[in-house]
From TrEMBL, chains A, B:
Any Gene Ontology biological process: proteolysis
One CC-aspect GO term: proteasome complex
Protein's recorded name: Proteasome-type protease
Top-level taxonomic group: Bacteria
Organism in which the protein naturally occurs: Qipengyuania benthica
Metal-binding is among the record's keywords: no
Cited InterPro entries: Ntn_hydrolases_N, Proteasome_sua/b, UCP009120_prtse
Length: 251, 251
């Protein structure tokens, strides 16, 4: 499994992904699922991937044209005039990669080569944008109503984002929110695992503002994980008490 | 979909279930998923069901021998000497019901007739017990390590139970905890819906201590739903802040 979240706030974009891949529970590896390309001062583009690892790696390799000699490579993402076209190009590659594998494998491989991709970034002169690309190659864009996308194991970590998100929050608070969401997911699903990759992209900077790999011994992650349990219990006890003997009257 | 939780605490058993059934999003109905039978002073047995509605209704109807004349009916659950045997009988019925339907439908119906059942109760002279019965008819029992079972849409509401559960909590707090867990689930999955059924079974009472149907306008549910959002935001802001510029040092 996988868990990746991309979130858009007023001040920019915050992205977090886990690094665990598994084929069964007894075959676990660490693979990066977050990739970025930038032209300092002009554009920054980040993608996070979920789904079949061979498929998502093939998509990223093709983006970087790794089948060519290094000096002949030409990353299409660095040429696309808009983020919309960046998402289109990635969608096209995803669809082609998946349908090629399915053709080669016939019915036997049907449905096994999936991939979902979160695309985030900003190009000079335009707003920061956030997209989710489906295995079929089509995609949707985040909006004020739906300002974040999750892929992979999305459920455990969703309620806190729904409750905690605020478009005007600081980038630091956005990191804190994603840290809590990942902590809840890690506690519940073994197939999502540390280390995590974090990336913060401030609006109009066109470069990575901050990135970090959060490992097992990361003091901030440990502090959040510990204090979130206490904070949740405090929150729980602050709620109105239930009574068997009278209807609740708001007192 | 469905969401049901059964939880065992020192003081007894607390159970909650939703009532929504759906076949697609445009065909929604309200059906009770919580059923109980009691012999006052001797035993109380409650079951909650998830899965294919025709299958779970067939199991409950057979438990009550509704194919017979009313005065010839003999509920096997009221004769079983132990809760273990109650769970066995239910498991047998589930397996027989499912395999009968599958035989009748052949390959075409394969895998469609599922049912998971939570069984809770107490028989005089023994401890309160909590079981989860699988579609295959086998079952597991709750323990100190795993003191609650969820069936249906289990993920959204799980983190708060993991964090908030305490074996020594009051029955009222147990109700509060399940209310929060259901609120998180309802907010995230349309196919889990109000009204909810709540049942509290105090240890050694052998009857329903408290039951209630929680409807859309239930003041306690509304109070929890509103204040939980605020309490979560307060909890979130009480956590240590993230900083881009220095490693977290626990200050």
């Amino acid at each position: 499994m996988t868990y990746c979240v991309g979130m858009i706030v007023e001040k920019g974009l915050v992205l977090m992904s886990d690094t665990r891949t598994n084929s069964g529970v007894d075959n676990i590896s660490v693979f990066r699922k977050m990739f970025h390309w930038q032209v300092p001062g002009e554009r920054i583009i980040t993608v996070m991937t979920a789904g079949n690892l061979a498929t998502t790696q093939a998509v990223v390799s093709q983006l970087e044209e790794r089948t060519k000699e290094p000096d002949q490579r030409d990353n299409v993402l660095l040429q696309s005039p808009t983020m919309f076209q960046v998402a289109s190009e990635i969608g096209k590659l995803v669809r082609e990669t998946i349908s090629e594998r399915q053709r080669a494998n016939g019915e036997r491989g049907k449905g096994r080569f999936t991939a979902s991709i979160i695309v985030a970034g900003q190009i000079a002169g335009m707003e920061p944008r956030l997209f989710m690309v489906y295995p079929e190659g089509n995609f949707i864009e985040a909006s004020a109503d739906t300002p974040f996308f999750q892929i992979g194991e999305t459920k455990y970590g969703r309620p806190i984002i729904l409750r905690g998100y605020d478009r005007s929050m600081s980038m630091e608070d956005a990191v804190k929110l994603l840290t809590v969401s990942f902590d809840s997911t890690l506690k519940a699903n073994l197939s999502v695992g540390l280390p995590l990759d974090l990336m913060v992209i401030e609006r109009d900077k066109f470069e990575v503002t901050h990135q970090r790999r959060i490992a097992h011994d990361d003091p901030y992650f440990l502090a959040i994980s510990t204090s979130w349990g206490d904070a949740l219990r405090t929150a729980f006890h602050s709620l109105p008490d239930y009574s068997f003997f009278s209807d609740y009257d708001g007192e």
